[in-house]
Amino acid sequence: MQRVKVLVVGAGVVGLSTAVCIAETLPHCSVTVVAEKFSPDTTSDGAAGILLATEFPDIPLERQRRWFKESFDHLLAIADSPQAGEAGVYLSSGYHIFKDVPCDKKPYWADLVFGFRNMTDQEMKRFPNHKFGQAFTTLKCECLSYLPWLEKRFRAAGGQILHEKVTDVHKLALNYDAIINCSGVGSRFLVHDEKVYPVRGQMLKVNAPWLKNFIRDGDGKTYIYPGMRYVSIGGTRQAGDWRMEVDKEDSEGILERCGRLEPSLRAGQVTGEWVGLRPGRANLRVEREYLPVRGRQVPLVHNYGHGGCGVTLSWGTALDALDLLRQSLYEKPPLARL
Ligand SMILES: Cc1cc2nc3c(=O)[nH]c(=O)nc-3n(C[C@H](O)[C@H](O)[C@H](O)COP(=O)(O)OP(=O)(O)OC[C@H]3O[C@@H](n4cnc5c(N)ncnc54)[C@H](O)[C@@H]3O)c2cc1C
Predict the structure, then answer these.
(1) Which residue among 278, 286, 300, 317 has the greatest number of ligand 1 atoms within 8 angstroms of its CB, and so is best to mutate?
(2) Domain parsing of the chain, residue ranges
(3) Angle (CA) 59 62 67, round 5°
(4) What share of the chain is helix, strand, coil (3-state, %, to 5)?
(5) Architecture of 4-97+143-196+281-330 per CATH?
(6) Positions in the chain whose pLDDT score sits under 50
């Protein structure tokens, strides 16, 4: 039997998760990942990788909850296995603090993480400029380790890798039976989606091994995430900003804000600075369309626009992309327009 040729564009956490799901679930498909950048040079590589989500306004909450749960369960199984260290996935506890009491005091994922509770008055005394806080244990998935681990798993399932920038999905469709678009913020150019925009994030790497608990301000602009190699401190959320250079003022602001939250950081040594572009989109896109190519209708499944939650929702949205691909392989495609 001839194998179905599937091409996944993108080798960030979304692309590699999707490629692994397809290669392991549909053995009659031959799966190739093509990308301009691989680990350690993708946006995903610099993400702190803490599992925590904000809401997409027009996507049913049950669907977002399923994405979170499937990703959490998948990563928890890794964290609970001997693979945890190599994959860079482990449990992480800390505080989510708010300057004003939020309208919704319980996010939709509150019962999916461990031990979610409101912080006590005694705990809040550490943060005199904040009025409300939540404490919980979630997962941290460090893509600097996780992406190479996923790539190894993908190759073990027979997957192939191509290093290349893609400029035209129609041309790709000449040589493949299905295309899966996981190009993150690159989707703005690759599939001309103007709803996708960069949300620039700058962070610093600090050597402060005594820090064990994360602290995140509810506005998402100030955070301290202790990790395996360094403590990630941030950050910025600059919508529409494509600059990849480190901004000195941003770094000073980050040090100042984080030092106020956690004074012991002032004794830490900054070992690196990094900038990444979150793939911003009001609603992330997991959808299918068809490309008419020489009388064939080639399925194009999109999986991009995860904003600041790409690691958090990666496995769940990969499973949805897999389902859309599977349906299109078994159902009759729409007739090509003449
Ligand atoms: C500072 C910062 C901190 C973050 N912290 C967290 C966090 O704690 N938790 C969390 O869940 N998320 C976090 N995020 C968000 C997370 O990084 C993103 O949501 C996630 O990386 C998106 O993954 P992706 O695979 O879609 O995109 P990317 O990682 O950007 O990968 C896109 C891939 O597509 C390829 N590509 C694009 N265009 C083309 C083309 N034309 N041809 C070929 N290849 C192409 C790229 O080369 C790359 O391989 C953070 C982001 C930043 C910037």
Answers:
(1) 278
(2) 4-97+143-196+281-330
(3) 80
(4) 35, 30, 35
(5) 3-Layer(aba) Sandwich (3.40)
(6) 336-338
